[in-house]
Write a structure and sequence with these properties.
single chain; 167 residues; mainly alpha; elongated
Length: 167
């Protein structure tokens, strides 16, 4: 009897395309988790609009902002945070795609983005930030750290080298 695919759970790979090792697959999964966390951040930000407005109102007791100004600042804060979250989601997904496909530039860009995220996390410790927000940022950073460590393991490097020679 003829079977178009082997009896295993994976279809055959394209000729010459090496299969990603477990560390790369786990790193890609962590990148999807990072995208999910960024989506959660987006949802929480949008749902927290009135809380943000109240924080601005309470912080502006000495400057006496009008209700319209307070509302405008809250809208600006939510829009900026939402755009940041959408960009983060896009970058997480792009890095997952690139690394899953053995694109060495994806591993390098992911490392650079992790470095930038590390600097932003350190700045969060210096500026006034809600402790819940800081904990969330730390969790996202840890997800990125795990992905970066896995991407630079020896078996991952072999995979990226093999994938680049195939092109």
């Amino acid at each position: 009897m003829y079977q178009p695919f082997p009896t295993g759970d994976q279809p055959p790979l394209e000729p010459g395309r090496p299969q990603a090792p477990r560390p790369v697959r786990t790193a890609v999964t962590l990148m999807y988790v990072g995208a999910g966390l960024s989506a959660i951040s987006l949802i929480v930000t949008v749902l927290s609009f009135h809380t943000i407005e109240n924080v601005i109102r309470n912080a502006s007791t000495t400057t006496r902002l009008t209700q319209s100004q307070i509302h405008g600042l809250a809208v600006a804060a939510v829009v900026i945070a939402s755009v940041e979250s959408l960009i983060a989601i896009g970058l997480w997904l792009l890095m997952a795609w690139a690394n899953k496909n053995g694109q060495n530039w994806g591993r390098i860009v992911a490392s650079v983005l992790f470095g930038i995220n590390t600097l932003l996390l350190l700045l969060s410790f210096v500026r006034a930030t809600a402790s819940v927000s800081l904990v969330f940022e730390l969790v996202v950073w840890l997800v990125g750290l795990g992905a970066i460590i896995l991407l630079w393991r020896k078996e991952s490097s072999v995979f990226f080298a093999a994938a680049s020679t195939r092109r």
